[in-house]
Design a protein that fits this description.
The complex is a heterotrimer of chains A (263), B (502) and C (205).
Chain A: H1 2-15, E1 26-29, E2 32-35, E3 38-39, E4 46-49, E5 52-55, H2 61-70, H3 113-122, H4 130-137, H5 152-160, E6 189-190, E7 215-216, E8 222-223, H6 229-239, E9 250-251, E10 255-256
Parallel strand pairs in A: 6-9
Antiparallel strand pairs in A: 1-5, 2-4, 3-8, 5-10
Chain B: H1 3-35, E1 52-53, E2 73-88, E3 91-98, E4 107-110, E5 114-121, E6 132-133, E7 152-159, E8 164-169, H2 175-180, E9 184-190, E10 200-209, E11 219-220, H3 225-230, E12 235-238, E13 251-254, E14 258-267, E15 272-276, E16 281-285, E17 293-296, E18 298-301, E19 305-312, E20 317-323, H4 327-331, E21 335-341, H5 368-379, H6 384-398, H7 400-403, H8 421-425, H9 427-436, E22 438-444, E23 447-453, H10 461-471, H11 484-493
Parallel strand pairs in B: 1-2, 2-5, 3-11, 4-9, 10-14, 13-21
Antiparallel strand pairs in B: 2-3, 5-7, 6-8, 8-9, 10-12, 14-19, 15-18, 15-20, 16-17, 16-19, 20-21, 22-23
Helix pairs in contact in B: 5-6, 6-10, 9-11, 10-11
Chain C: H1 2-18, H2 31-34, E1 50-51, E2 57-58, E3 68-73, H3 80-93, H4 97-102, E4 104-109, H5 117-126, E5 134-137, H6 141-151, E6 155-157, E7 163-166, E8 169-172, E9 178-182, H7 190-198
Parallel strand pairs in C: 3-4, 4-5
Antiparallel strand pairs in C: 1-2, 3-8, 6-7, 8-9
Classes of the chains: A alpha+beta (263), B alpha/beta (502), C alpha/beta (205).
């Protein structure tokens, strides 16, 4: 009986969005409304976000090593070229060995979308959608909308203006945001499930409406919030990617349904 | 048949056979030669079909002029690097560069060339990048076809249809930030006949930079988006850093060199008023186009534009390169140097010829007469002779500029003081004129004058007293002393015109 | 002719053998990864379950052994998709009969919500496509995303159920390796025509 009460209490607390005490595991994010930096259809400037669960921390080198040891098809010496390019896990000393340039607690980078997706599937999870990720990342320390907090956007922009040559810090240092999520900014870019949903032509100045023929569709691509440069830059970055690409600054974390948030 | 003709015929046949035989032999030799390794080929000139790898240079160097007569296929490999460099002494900035430096590499091709362009984004970079070359006729200037993630390479091909000096820059969102971080350079498309021969060519590119800290505030400075939007530049620089063209990195030329500078302006915001102190541009290909203007002191270079300036180094020395929106030079770093070596040429520029005394109205070290007058006034023993002597000294420094050293004035311009009826008629009035100035028609010694005498109220009361005592007692004027007290009293009674010093 | 038929059948068999799963791995999705075609560049390495316009279950490699033109669309698309189909038919008409007979065309729907097999069949009939050589396929949402990722196609589902998507026709070799891509709808598709005239049905190596 007491166990049941405790479990119920835990579930209730989890449902209420109280962040768990320990890092790692998932946290519940949302529900809420995301202000879009683009307009996928005329007049549409926001998107509703249902509640979902999100990894508190990015996936680390240690996590990914464990995955590769169970799924040999994802070793860098075995993976098909359509699923990952030549930079896949290039920073590891060997196909099954991290080495000095890949600390276990650093976010894993040099991974492709296919590899990230396979990892999340193996955990019974999935990649977050772009809207889910942006919604989680919009939060500041005190609330779901960090734009109101001074210095929020500047801090993010200053990370983008530093080159990727410095060593990636370990995950989980510093404060989590309002939802209890760490490291959405300042560590690495992160894959999303629908990374290829942004129809930007290679030239970002092509005016407001997407060319109709190469991009079939009814929507106009207009900038919503002109001041949110960080989101613009993430949009631009994602639109330069193919699913098999890996880069030094690109990692990921997993998402899931809200039931998973109690883990 | 005569025996000779038979002989001739036989000889002819033998010759024929021998000839054929020789021919056969030589053919065999030739074919056997072709079986042996080929002899080394003679020097091969580049054909239109064989691709040429473009020579790219870092500023201020320029690739050599194109000498081939025909268009060719040119291959360009340009790598984007995000690097931390010094923007000023002790000030670091993260630049995004084409080729490792700001400005990006100089590309030199010929009109009609087919350019195969490879844009490489180094794997250590964080940002995607692309390139828009103003020399390209096509969507986005190449930007649509060159959008590249870090660790990858894009390729596109264009034909250089128009000659001229063109800017290239990154066009990835947010575009202003990519440009502000230094992603620009120049591509020169030479006309078929090439450019006229000069002795030295240089590459200079201006840009404005926006940092969170103020000008020369030390340390690692991040980019300031709001300042960029407001167009409040922190630095305005040639070639990406404050010391880029100064000291031992100054541009160097020899006396007599014909010099050409390819000047670009990456912006992102500011237009340049490009000027070289001490030089006149013999030719300016304004806006980097095909026509030139001559004898230009300062030329405008639009943001995202260029100009080609040409001049001859006639006089040795150091020439300062500036943006003549001059606070940018003195307070934001828009300063470079060109050093010309060689023997002096005094016919064109003499250097300093006279180093003479010049006593201004506020003379530094006081002349003896003025000093004596001052001390006498203190003691209360100031006599007219001392005043006159002091007044003469002061007059020379101030009034003689217009009224001339001997008080004769300039006919129709400035009235005389010598034997002046107007001056001597009214002592009080003469004090007021010195204090307030005088405009409008006056008649002096029967001549009309209509000019402007500015107020001299900046002179001290004792100085005015001494000057007036001098002029009213010299050049045939028979007058009296004017005392300091009189001047003081007059000053307190009158109203000085606006703008007059107090 | 018969020799070619034998060769094609042999090729199909060989291809089929190549994709037989090996020892089971923990995650069934990646069985095909380990058994990947010897050429790691083939998109047929993706294990996917789709359904065609007749309701038949097929894999992405339904036409392995043939050169394939593959693209993505949705049946209710008003602008580019009708043009896409017209373009594919025009490419067909510009080929010699021999090459055309060899060619196969695969269209994968972006819209599993509305594009049921019945809807796809109705579209195929309305546009008079040759069903012996064309397949219109429906895949689950996640598989659609993976196929688009392999083909470099961008798309977004809009609030009203329509799609923004890029229009790309990709030419696959008989092994499923991407040989050429063309993003210009309505254009001459030179790269695709050139590739088709070179590609032949071959048995998988």
């Amino acid at each position: 009986m007491r166990h049941l009460a405790l479990v119920t209490l835990a579930l209730v607390l989890a449902g209420a969005g109280v962040p768990a005490a320990s890092p790692g595991g998932m946290a519940r994010v949302g529900p809420g409304v995301l202000r879009l930096v683009y307009s996928p259809a005329p007049g549409v400037t926001t998107a509703d976000v249902g509640a979902f669960a999100l990894d508190r921390l990015p996936v680390t080198n240690a996590d990914f090593l464990s995955f590769v040891s169970h799924q040999a098809g994802w070793r860098r010496d075995r993976v098909g070229r359509v699923f990952a390019d030549d930079g896949y896990l290039a920073h590891w000393a060997g196909p099954m060995e991290l080495g000095p340039d890949a600390r276990p607690d650093q976010p894993v980078t040099h991974v492709s979308w296919f590899a990230a997706k396979a990892y999340c599937s193996a955990q019974g999870k999935r990649l977050p959608t772009e809207i889910e990720w942006e919604f989680a990342a919009a939060a500041g320390d005190a609330g779901p909308d960090g734009a109101a907090e001074p210095g929020f956007r500047e801090r993010i922009l200053s990370w983008y203006s530093r080159p990727a040559t410095s060593e990636l810090p370990s995950v989980g240092q510093g404060q989590p945001n309002f939802w209890g999520i760490h490291d959405l900014h300042g560590l690495a870019w992160e894959w999303v499930l629908d990374y290829n949903s942004t129809l930007v032509s290679g030239d970002s100045r092509s005016g407001k409406s997407a060319d109709r023929l190469p991009f079939c569709g009814t929507g106009a691509f207009t900038a919503g919030d002109n001041e949110d440069y960080a989101s613009f830059m993430r949009l631009a970055f994602r639109s330069s990617l193919e699913a098999r690409y890996t880069t030094r600054s690109l990692g990921f974390r997993c998402a899931g349904d809200t039931e998973a948030a109690s883990r | 048949m005569a025996p000779r003709s038979i002989l001739t015929g036989l000889l002819g046949m033998v010759a024929l056979v021998m000839g054929v035989g020789l021919l056969l032999v030589s053919t065999q030799e030739a074919s056997s030669q072709s079986q042996t390794p080929a002899k080394p080929a003679a020097a091969v000139t580049a054909q239109a079909g064989a691709p040429i790898e473009a020579v790219l240079t870092s500023a201020p160097e320029v690739p050599p002029p194109i000498t081939r007569r025909d268009p060719a296929k040119v291959v360009v490999h340009l790598e984007v690097r995000e690097v931390n460099l010094a923007i000023s002494d002790g000030v670091e900035y993260t630049f995004w560069t084409f080729g490792g430096q700001v400005p990006g590499k100089f590309i030199r091709v010929r009109q009609g060339d087919t350019v195969e362009f490879h844009l490489q984004n180094h794997q250590d970079n964080k940002m995607p990048h692309n390139i828009d070359l103003h020399a390209v006729t096509g969507p986005g200037g190449g930007a649509t076809s060159s959008f590249t993630a870090p660790g990858h390479e894009s390729q596109f091909t264009f034909k250089a249809l128009n000659p001229g000096l063109y800017v290239y820059h990154c066009a990835t969102a947010p575009v202003g930030m990519h440009i502000a971080n230094g992603m620009y350079g120049l591509i020169l498309v030479e006309p078929p006949q090439g450019l006229s021969k000069v002795d030295r060519e240089f590459y200079v590119m201006q840009g404005d930079f926006y940092t969170v800290g103020s000008y020369r505030e030390k340390g690692m400075q991040p980019f300031d988006m709001q300042k960029a939007i407001d167009e409040r530049a922190t630095y305005v620089l040639f070639n990406g850093s404050e010391g880029a063209l100064v000291g031992d990195k100054a541009l160097k030329a020899k006396l007599g060199d014909r010099i050409r500078i390819f000047v670009g302006n990456g912006g992102p915001n500011l237009v340049s008023s490009f000027h070289v102190i001490g030089e006149i541009f013999d030719r300016v290909y304004y806006e980097g186009g095909s026509r030139y203007q001559e004898n230009v002191q300062t030329t405008l270079i639009p943001a995202g534009g260029s100009a080609i300036v040409e001049f001859k180094a006639e006089v040795p020395g150091t020439y300062v390169i500036v943006d003549h929106s001059i606070f940018r030079t003195f307070n934001k770093g828009a300063l470079g140097m060109l050093k010309v070596d060689g023997p002096e040429n005094k016919l064109v520029y003499s250097g300093k010829e006279v180093d003479a005394d010049y006593i201004s109205e506020k003379a530094g070290p006081q002349s003896t007469a003025i000093a004596s007058a001052a001390s006498a006034a203190e003691k209360g023993t100031l006599d007219i002779k001392t005043q006159i002597a002091a007044g003469e000294s002061l007059f020379k420094g101030t009034c003689s500029v217009c009224h001339q050293p001997h008080g004769n004035g300039l006919p129709n311009v400035f009235p005389p003081l010598a034997k002046s009826d107007f001056l001597m008629a009214n002592k009080q009035r003469s004090i007021e004129v010195v204090l307030k100035g005088l405009t409008g028609p006056v008649t002096v010694n029967g001549k009309q004058f209509n000019s402007v005498m500015p107020p001299m109220s900046q002179l001290r009361d004792d100085e005015i007293a001494n000057i007036l005592t001098y002029v009213r007692n010299t050049w045939g004027n028979q007058g009296e002393q004017v005392s300091t007290a009189e001047v003081t009293a007059t000053r307190s009674k009158i109203k000085l015109p606006p703008g007059a010093a107090h | 002719m018969r020799a070619m038929a034998i060769a094609v059948i042999a090729g199909l068999l060989a291809g089929g053998l190549a994709t037989a799963p090996p020892a089971p791995a923990q995650e069934h999705r990646h069985e095909s990864m380990e058994a990947a075609s010897p050429r790691g560049d083939s998109i047929y390495a993706l294990s996917a379950s789709l359904v065609d316009q007749r309701g038949r279950p097929v894999g992405l490699d339904v036409f392995r052994g043939h050169p394939v033109l593959i693209s993505m669309f949705y049946a209710t698309c008003p602008d580019a998709c009708p043009l896409l189909i017209a373009d594919l038919q025009r490419i067909e008409s510009e080929l010699s009969p021999r090459i055309r007979a060899d060619l196969r065309i695969v269209l994968v729907s972006l819209d599993p919500w509305r594009d049921t097999p019945e809807a796809l069949l109705a579209l195929a009939r309305a546009r008079h496509v040759d069903e012996s050589r064309w397949r219109l396929l429906r895949a689950p949402e996640d598989t659609v995303r993976e196929i688009a990722a392999l083909l470099g196609i961008k798309y977004r589902r809009l609030p009203d159920g329509n799609f923004n998507h890029s229009s790309v026709i990709t030419l696959l070799s008989p092994d499923g390796v991407i040989v050429a891509r063309d993003e210009a709808i309505g254009g001459p598709h030179e790269a695709l025509l050139r590739g088709l005239r070179v590609a032949r049905s071959t048995p998988s190596r």
